[in-house]
Amino acid sequence: MLSQVVTNQVGQRENRQKVADTSRIREFLRIKPPSFTGSSVTEDPKNFVEELLKVFEIMHVVDAERVD
Fold first, then answer.
1. pLDDT per residue over 3-56, tens digit each?
2. 52-56, long-range: CB within 8 Å, 24+ apart, which pairs?
3. Sign of CA dihedral 45, 47, 50, 54
4. pTM flag (> 0.85)
5. Hey, what's the torsion of the CAs at 47, 50, 51, 52, to 10 degrees?
6. N or C: which end of the chain has fewer CB within 10 A?
């Protein structure tokens, strides 16, 4: 009985995390982040990174959530 309760709680926590992750992705895409293809000489990768950092700041993304 106790193991079933614990299993249910873990499952609920995982579901909440999936919903939160999906929500963050939607928010990120709604902001329309810059894109970088690297196919043009005029594209500045530093500018791309700076713009993404601005988006992360707006979204209140902490360093631990960022991908290096």
1. 776 676 666 677 777 788 889 899 999 999 999 988 888 888 999 999 999 999
2. 55/28, 55/31
3. negative
4. no
5. 120
6. C
